[in-house]
């Protein structure tokens, strides 16, 4: 049995209360009048309780939607494990270096493409283009997200324009130099901003 009354039940109680009457010819003695007042007060109290039940009908709320399960990133072995591991260790070793627009050394700081070009030059003596847009256009295979491996470049932007780049280091994470006032850091590709602005990946390891 549910708490409270239905809307129809409440309406019926109100109608009964409004239309109740007593015969006009009845002789009303003081005792009868007192009893009538007590009965009326009791009826009014009962009505208020019932109407309170009408106002407190239970509210049924929809069940909460469970959060999405975290994405499981496949472990794709690199074609050159030694080179990929060296890239990984050098990139992670630069986490915490201050961001600087136009910077491309640990001493001066890094912007996003400066970090990428420095790591590949320092580890593999490989010269890469200087801007994120030029890096996205460099010769090399484009890689779908499920085939990413350590050392791949990951690109971000909007409306088809690449504006940011980082180095993938495995398990859905990448190292990058994000913005003025920040530092080189490790982030997840599934992070809200990066997921929404991801624009592709490229493999440049020899």
TrEMBL record:
Question: Domain named NlpC/P60: which ranges?
Answer: 81-205
State any single GO MF term. cysteine-type peptidase activity
Task: Please list the GO biological process terms of this entry.
Answer: proteolysis
Q: Which UniProt keywords apply?
A: Hydrolase, Lipoprotein, Protease, Thiol protease
| Gene3D superfamilies hit by this protein | endopeptidase domain like (from Nostoc punctiforme) (3.90.1720.10)
The record's section on InterPro entries has: NLP_P60_dom, Papain-like_cys_pep_sf, Peptidase_C40
**Family indicated by similarity:** Belongs to the peptidase C40 family.
**Protein known as:** Lipoprotein
């Amino acid at each position: 049995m549910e708490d409270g009354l239905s809307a129809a039940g409440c309406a019926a109680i109100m109608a009964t209360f409004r239309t109740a009457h007593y015969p006009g010819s009845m002789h009303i003695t003081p005792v009868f009048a007192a009893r009538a007042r007590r009965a009326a007060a009791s009826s009014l109290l009962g009505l208020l309780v019932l109407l309170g039940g009408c106002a407190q009908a239970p509210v049924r709320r929809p069940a909460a939607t469970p959060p999405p399960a975290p994405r499981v990133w496949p472990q794709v072995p690199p074609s050159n494990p030694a080179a990929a591991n060296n890239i990984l260790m050098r990139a992670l070793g630069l986490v915490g270096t201050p961001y600087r627009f136009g910077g491309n050394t640990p001493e001066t700081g890094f912007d996003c493409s400066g970090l990428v070009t420095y790591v590949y030059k320092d580890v593999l003596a490989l010269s890469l283009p200087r801007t994120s847009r030029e890096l996205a256009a460099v010769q090399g295979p484009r890689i779908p997200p499920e085939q990413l491996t350590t050392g791949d470049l990951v690109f971000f932007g909007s409306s088809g324009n690449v504006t940011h780049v980082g180095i993938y280091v495995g398990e859905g994470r990448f190292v990058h130099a994000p913005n003025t006032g920040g530092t080189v850091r490790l982030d997840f590709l599934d992070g809200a901003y990066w997921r929404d602005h991801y624009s592709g990946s490229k493999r440049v390891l020899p």
